[in-house]
Amino acid sequence: MEALAELERVQTRILHRISDLELSHLPQHFSHSLSLQSSAAAGANADADASTTTEGRLSAVLLANSGRDFSFKRVPSDYYEWTLEARRDILGAASIHHLCKSIVLVNTQAPPNVTDCSDRNYSKYYVVVVQYTARFNAETVKNFLYALNNGKISKKKFNMRLAPEETSAKLTGYEHNGVTCIGMKTDIPVILDEAITKLNPDFFWLGGGEIDLKLGIRTKEFIDYVKPFIVNCSGS
């Protein structure tokens, strides 16, 4: 039975891959339009306003900010139990290194008067985007922020730690494994790991606002819209 189940999973991934390849040969504007139509048709009401869905809302945000080369894809509920290779295949990503995640950090040593994200140079919170294959180094972020403030703030006032899930959800509006930098509830400053900017091709995947929704986006378009700090903050 286990062998049969595995065979069914492999066949499903192959069919997804064939579908992705077919779409990739369509003109870009047609492919994107088809993707949005398919998503709408899959809903309980095909005539529902796309702006009421996460995909529709985030697509509108990106399109309003000159975003053109992006894609949303639904994944199975057990996606995070899969290997990185299996995730790569179902998304049609170029490699496992193109699979990224967004994590919310909190500065636990910020003084009492620093409670929000109004000062992007010395914010209480930051969102960091890193590859799944990389090892995040919080110390490099600490050193970057210290230098960003020209050493005027003591290093003791920087201690970047993973924010509690409930805090992350409240600030971003997204659940764990669904966090994305697009359309967050709070304008949290973003740090993009430098390694992502060196990926070839320059199109990476990250959370799409829901646990089973993923967003693929051209790196330049992501940078132009999000305007992140680009920091070497990871190792392999």
Distance between the termini: 38 Å
Q: Any idea what the radius of gyration is?
A: 19 Å
What's the average pLDDT? 86
Q: Catalogue the unreliable spans.
A: 1-5, 23-44
Order of helices and strands: HHHEHEEEHEHEHEEHEE
The tally of strands reads 10
How many distinct helices? 8
Strand order in the sheet with the most strands: 5-2-3-6-9
**What is the strand content?**
15-25%
Backbone shape? globular
Q: What is the multimeric organization of the chains shown?
A: single chain
Main pleated-sheet profile: 5 strands, mixed
Structural class: alpha+beta
Helical residue percent? 25-40%
Organism: Sesamum latifolium
Protein name: YbaK/aminoacyl-tRNA synthetase-associated domain-containing protein
GO molecular function, one term: aminoacyl-tRNA deacylase activity
Domain YbaK/aminoacyl-tRNA synthetase-associated: 96-224
